[in-house]
Design a protein that fits this description.
The chain has two domains: 133 residues, no CATH class; 134 residues, no CATH class. A hairpin with a 3-residue loop joins strand 12 and strand 13. It is an alpha+beta fold and 303 residues long. The protein is flat and about 70 Å long. The chain is built from six helices and 13 strands.
Length: 303
């Protein structure tokens, strides 16, 4: 999440946005200022370093990286020297990257890695799981295809008729799309997207008043967003925008984003008081925040 300030100092334009595909702030702790994140219980278990033998030589160190042994595991990392005053950690698709001042010794750097090993292994595990989801087959736009809706899969049914229409059967979890026989795939996508956006507007419109009442705040308006980097945003004058793609997810995740944005009407920041406000109306916010962060864009249908 990031605070955006326009060039004009008009306080009504101040907004806070809930990022979705970018890393969480807690993903880059510093040794001098440890990030206040709760370490997951499940740890990433890298492939144990192969024992030295004639028939099975050790795995070569990737180019540009260093290797250190942590227990029975070999951990590869990239080291970048900089003018910063502290040791920084970052996990990306290339693994672990350490940024450290030029005057810090290699021993001190590896001691810091040992101190943060639980965090490092947990984040590597999250990254590995996210990469695995990218390899899952994409949705097929055809009769019988599966579409994520409110955290569940519904089945597409395509009917070739001259009359256009969309019908959802909640009992059978089937979404029937009526299209002309010569309709193309993009027409099907447009029809499904239109239905999902209508559902998003309906569901968000029902959930917002519930949490606004719990919090004792009033928002001025809400609208759907098609942002590629945020799940939601809130301005100081009470204008809320929610990403329509949230309709793919289970209701608790939608409620978390709604509670998050409404809480900004009390606290236009991300201070401890803000998170306490979120927790007061949505106690399970930590689990919801993590679940939402774990959803990579590649797991969602491409329209």
């Amino acid at each position: 999440m990031k605070l955006l300030r326009h060039t004009s100092p008009d306080p009504k334009q101040l907004s806070l946005q809930l990022d979705f595909f970018s890393p969480d702030v807690s993903a880059q702790p510093r040794i001098d200022q440890p990030a206040p994140v709760q370490e997951p219980e499940g740890l990433f278990r890298p492939t144990p370093a192969a024992p030295l033998s004639i028939t099975e030589p050790p795995r070569p160190v990737p180019h540009g990286k260093r290797r250190m042994q942590i227990g029975e595991h070999a951990l590869d990392y990239a080291l970048v020297r900089s003018k910063r005053r502290s040791i920084g950690f970052m996990i990306d698709d290339d693994g672990l990257r350490i940024t450290a001042p030029k005057w810090v010794t290699l021993t001190e750097i590896e001691n810091a890695i040992h101190e943060k090993k639980r965090w490092i292994f947990a984040k590597l595990n999250e990254r590995r799981e996210r990469s695995a989801r990218r390899l899952q087959p994409q949705m097929e736009w055809r009769d019988g295809g599966k579409l994520p809706y409110l955290g569940d899969d519904i089945t597409l049914r395509i009917r070739a008729t001259q009359s256009a229409g969309v019908l959802f059967n909640a009992a059978t979890k089937e979404l029937t799309i009526c299209l002309p026989a010569d309709a193309g795939e993009q027409q099907l996508k447009d029809r499904v997207q239109g239905w999902l956006q209508l559902e998003a507007k309906r569901i968000f419109g029902e959930r917002l008043p519930i949490y606004a009442e719990k919090l004792g705040v009033a928002y001025q308006s809400f609208a759907l967003s098609s942002a590629t980097t945020q799940w939601g945003s809130c301005t100081a004058d009470g204008r809320i925008r929610l990403n329509w793609r949230l309709v793919h997810f289970a209701l608790p995740l939608i409620d978390y984003v709604i509670a998050h944005e409404l809480a900004h009407l009390r606290e236009m920041n991300h201070s401890p008081r803000f998170w306490a406000t979120v927790q007061s109306i949505f106690p399970e916010f930590e689990a919801a925040k993590k679940a939402l962060r774990d959803h990579a864009p590649e797991t969602l249908p491409i329209f």
